[in-house]
Amino acid sequence: MVPPLPDDALDRAQAGEPAAFSLIYQALSPSVLGYFAGRGSDDPEALTQDVFLTVFSKLDSVSGGLRGLRTFTFSVAHARHVDEVRRKVRAPALVGYEADGDTRTVESAETVALGNLDAGGTTGMLAQLNAEQRDVLLLRIVAELPIEQVAEILGRSAGSVKQLQRRGLLKLKELVHPNESDAQ
User: Fold this and answer.
1) Cα→Cα distances 15→8, 19, 61, 150, 167, Å
2) What is the signed CA dihedral for 50, 51, 56, 58, rounded to 10 degrees?
3) Which of 119, 104, 125, 105 is closest to 176 using CA atoms?
4) What is the DSSP letter of 91?
5) Do 110 and 80 belong together in one domain?
6) Domain count for the chain
7) How distant is the alpha carbon of residue 100 from its chain centre?
8) End-to-end C-alpha distance for the chain, whole angstroms
9) pLDDT of res. 1
10) Same domain, yes or no: 112 and 77
11) Residue 80 CB coordination number (10 Å)
12) DSSP string across 16-67
């Protein structure tokens, strides 16, 4: 149980005595925390801390002794609760992303190429790439090797491998969707 607040606690806190701030906090914070918890606040502890930061910064304007302090403290607490409710009402509803239901995407060139691997169409498309692009795409996509390993195998820089991969995928995309390049 919290001991009652001494009658001179407000005067001592207004004079800047650190122990008086502690006494006020210890006496009033459980009630403020209970107020927020009872109102269903998302984070009652954080709101309680916020209330006392405000109360302590405006302590010089408090009058009416301990009763005035208590009234002021709960006025601030109520205002913080109203702010929280308004923030919740104004916040947009967050909905998780569901990739399966997203119709705005198209398959990538590499997905189409891998999908056609069994159909035999991939070999014909790969034959239309230059040898360097074909080697990079086979090592990156089919063998699933990282860029650094492909660069080491081919004796090239990582930047060169990235450029060859990009150009090869763009060429495959043109082969898979020939009319898309005309529209752009």
Assistant:
1) 11, 11, 12, 72, 74
2) 110
3) 125
4) S
5) no
6) 2
7) 22
8) 74
9) 58
10) no
11) 20
12) T-HHHHHHHHHHHHHHHHHHHHHTT-S-HHHHHHHHHHHHHHTGGG--SHHH
What pLDDT, on a 0 to 100 scale, did the predictor assign at position 140? 86
Taking only the tens place, the pLDDT of each residue in 114-129 is 666 555 566 677 788 8
Q: Is the four-CA dihedral 75, 78, 83, 86 of positive or negative sign?
A: negative
Domain termination residue (choose one: 60, 90, 120)? 90
CB 70 within 8 A of CB 109: no
Task: Give residue-wise pLDDT tens across range 96-155.
Answer: 878 777 777 777 776 766 666 555 566 677 788 888 998 888 888 877 889 999 899 889
In this structure, are 28 and 74 located in the same domain? yes
Tell whether 118 and 169 lie within a shared domain: yes
- Of 101, 108, 102, 117, nearest to 180 by C-alpha is 108
Q: What is the pLDDT of residues 55-100, one digit of tens each?
A: 999 999 998 888 899 989 999 999 999 999 999 888 887 778 787 7
- CB count within 10 Å of CB 174 equals 16
